[in-house]
Structure formats: C-alpha cells, structure tokens
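Morning!

This is the sequence you dropped in the shared folder:
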Amino acid sequence: MDALMVMNTEETRAEATGITEVIADLISRARATGGVVVFVSAPVAPGAPELPESVFEVGDDLGLVSESADAFDGVDDLAAGLHDLAVDRIIIGGVDVQEAIRHTAMAALACNFDVIVLADGTRDLSGTPVEWLSDAEESGAMIKDVADVWLRM
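The structure's back. Tokens below.
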C-alpha cells in the first residue's frame, strides 16, 4: 500500500512555489481510494505542538509536526506506524524546506520503503525544481511526475 507524504505546504510556501494544483490532484486520488495521506510540517515556532495551517485541508488525514528535516527522525515511530498500516511505498512531494523532502526520502529508503519523489510536485522555497533528484534516483528512489503515479491502495 502507498502513503502519500506531503511536506511543508503552509499557505505562503505552497502558493509561492506553484505546486498546489499538482499535488491537490494526487491528494484527491489518494483520498478517493481510501489511501494514507500524511501531512508533515515544521513547527510554527520552536517547541510549538500544533500543525501549521496548510493550504490543503488535513481533515481525517494524518498531520504531523517534525522538529527535524527528516520526518522519520523527527516523528517518533513514524516508520513503524506506516509499516503497521501495511504501507510499503512512500510517495513524497511538497516544499523542500532545508532539504526536508530529500532527507525524508533517503530515510524512507533506509526504513525499507520503496520511494517515489514527485518531480513536478517538489519545489524549493523559490519555486524552482530541486537539484538532487538524480542523487535520489541513484540511491534507489523512483522519480515521477504526478500524472505518471499509479496509486496502490
């Protein structure tokens, strides 16, 4: 089963990078099939427990705050919890603040998940494509555009 992990999509970040519509399509598809959707964000302020306001409605999805750029390091038992839900593949995109998507994708590979990084759904803070996709692919991640992702739910 897949888990769609959407990172750092606070209103100002997501809208400034132009990824909102691209990722919204995949979120809709994942929700329609009963899939696992995880929103991960840095805290509003150091030590703040609440999830910052996302451009997407979190609703019944999982909303997490990670103190670390690597969500698997910043959220206790994230890998174990996803494995318990029978998740074996992470599809990841969003705004790559402090290379959080890169670090989380590499950690997901180390935690024995297959990983797809969304090429057209991952941007840096300036809205430009990230430069590390080929490194992620060499490490074992798949790189795909949202339209080319078939969800396994």
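Headline: The helical segments are 11-17, 20-32, 71-74, 78-84, 100-110, 133-139.

More detail when I'm at my desk.
O.
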